[in-house]
Amino acid sequence: MNAIKTRLTSTPGPLRRTVSMLLFSAAAAAALWAIVPPRALSQPHAPQDRNLALSKIAPWVLQHTADGKEAEFLVVLTDQADLSGAERLTTKQEKGRYVRDALWNKAQATQGPLLTWLRERNIEHRSYYIVNLIWVRGNRDNASEVAARPDVLRIEGNPQVRGIPDIRPVMEETSQPQRVTTVEPGIAYTHAPLVWAEGFTGQGVVVGGADTGYRWTHTALKPHYRGWDGTTGHHDYNWHDSIHDSSGNPCGNDSPFPCDDYGHGSHTMGTAIGDDGAGNQVGMAPGAKWIGCRNMDQGNGTPARYLECFQFFLAPYPVNGNPNQGDPTLAPDVTTNSWICPSTEGCSANTLQMGVEAQLAAGINMVAAAGNSGPSCSTVSDPPAIYAAVYTVGALNTGTDTIADFSSRGPVTADGSNRRKPDISAPGVNNRSAWNTSDTAYVSISGTSMATPHVAGGTAVLLSARPILHHDVAMQRTVLSNSAFHLNSSLCGSSGYPNNTFGYGRIDVQAAYQYLLLTGAVSRKTQGGAGTFDINLPLSGEPGVECRNGGGNYTEVFTFDNNVVSGSAAVTGGTGSVSGSPVFSGNTMTVNLIGVTDVQQITVTLSGVTDVFSQVLPSTPVSMNVLIGDVNGNKVVNASDVALVKSQVGQAVSGSNFREDVNADGSVSSSDVALTKLHVGDGLP
């Protein structure tokens, strides 16, 4: 990849282009493998198949440890944490805590033997937990012996790569920083200011940025930094520097405060949240807060640096502290990532994937640049843009709905997935934002790097307006994609939208704000003369449990953020059917079910639900567990349920004990106890 090419009078000359092309042929690789030391295959419990052990080592590592040289590599352990349990959780804080603890505990439980082995041999290393791996600086013998271990899955290279896609300057910085009195054209074109006018500017939302660092004292950034209280800077939990070994870097190593060694990071964060309060309205979400991590040394990254910032965002920790001090409750809601890990320079397609997926499981929406290798097809070719877990952004010519010629296109072929990318597009040409040369410096540049923070900031505005989406990254993306100004394309093996040129099209923050949302669902129980009670049915994660014995008849009520006027419902999973037509009243839709059998999960899918503004909800399924007698809702009927019902016999039915009225006749009696006993032993998977 090319370095950033700038014509800024206050910046150094062009950086060197650094490209490491891997030229191995299969024969060359086989020859290298043939000289692995025999002791690598004779250690206790080592694989006896030499080819199996050697196949774990990436070609980049073999190349860079030839002739006795040392290189940095990443040892990925076989045993990785299972994060699937996070899907059942219904708040972002719960998801973050679960994921952090699962990853941390897995690393603590499994890395010990290999760490001991490395210490005994005085081999330089560093442990990570965002992916269960260990960074090592070693030689060919070290790599070969480690690869022979059964607890090692593979060994990836840790090359230094050109991390910033080629960006294009279009306006030189002048001696007197330019000031404008209107919102920047790219910001206006997303319609974000129309949502500001409704009172939603990103307040209550945290944007994380991984880049070349940040000039935190810049007037467009400082008021929005989470570490600034109006008087003093507090950098613990708000800033991390993953650069530990640079030479001659203007920020040095392990900077204790946010510092930008290149300008790129200040520019991207400015587009996400920047506003100096004096006319320079350069950012999408001026009410949001930001935190940062430097993951590049003057534009040069490594997989380990990238992963270290992932780890910090998952659970931020103090400056000069340790990951074991991490607090997932301080994690950002969305991150903006205008960098790449080029495969042409030794970054393999799967090196970063598990780290990206861990952030997604924790409820962090990772937004990333598609890259600037267009206009050819399949040029979305480098991590992290290639991953399904990332929301990938292409660049538009600002103020138009035409694609920038440099914007990378899909489909993704680097990992064999043929995945459609990008996901969405945003203004990416001639974008003006903050720069690192002074606290009042601004510059205009172009690239998918510039488009990406439009989407990250737009997500922050959406979350401030629709807090119910905080824990649900999939729905955040669904809303932004479906509400985009759809742009069609027949290029690169796709047609209509979404497509491999624009994704779904141009982000439209106002349309996202107005997008019809399902905000709640309940199973409504009428308990005779005692009144009506509701059992919550979560919209994500583990479905709620309905325990009523109503002859298979149930009532579900769905609540929306706008008044709704039409739509349909159907049973799409389980046994039962919808009776009659839905009833609409204000912002609710009531659906009656009949013939619902016990001991099952039933799913009702809403289709074509339309609000008073003619906006249509996408097809949306809502599930409910049905288990008669499960009064405590733990998916099994047992003695504890019987005891609960017994304890309420003779008590008046109220909002606190209506589930114990299993017969739903308005009183808790011995018949409810008998019915519960009848179902003891029933359970759901």
Which labels suit this protein?
685 residues, seven-stranded parallel β-sheet, five-stranded antiparallel β-sheet, disordered N terminus, single chain, 16 helices, alpha/beta, 22% helix
Structural features, described:
- Helices cover 22% and strands 22% of the residues.
- With 685 residues, the protein is α/β, with parallel strands linked by helices.
- A 7-stranded parallel β-sheet has the order 8-9-7-11-12-13-14, with helices on both faces. A 5-stranded antiparallel β-sheet has the order 20-19-22-25-24, with no helix packed on it. Strands 2-3-1-4 form a 4-stranded antiparallel β-sheet, with helices on both faces.
- Helix 11 links the parallel strand 11 and strand 12.
- The protein is globular, with a radius of gyration of 28 Å.
- Residues 1-48 have low confidence and may be disordered.
Please specify the SSE layout and strand pairing.
Layout: H1 26-33, H2 50-54, H3 59-64, E1 71-77, H4 92-110, H5 112-120, E2 124-128, E3 133-138, H6 140-147, E4 152-157, E5 161-162, E6 168-171, H7 185-189, H8 192-196, E7 206-211, E8 239-241, H9 264-273, E9 289-294, E10 300-301, H10 303-314, E11 334-337, H11 353-361, E12 365-369, E13 391-396, E14 424-427, E15 431-434, E16 442-446, H12 448-465, H13 473-482, E17 485-486, E18 505-506, H14 509-514, E19 518-526, E20 532-536, E21 544-546, E22 554-560, E23 564-573, E24 577-585, E25 588-594, E26 600-611, E27 620-626, H15 639-648, H16 670-678
Parallel strand pairs: 7-9, 7-11, 8-9, 11-12, 12-13, 13-14, 21-27
Antiparallel strand pairs: 1-3, 1-4, 2-3, 5-10, 6-16, 15-16, 17-18, 19-20, 19-22, 22-25, 23-26, 24-25, 26-27
Helix pairs in contact: 9-12, 10-11, 15-16
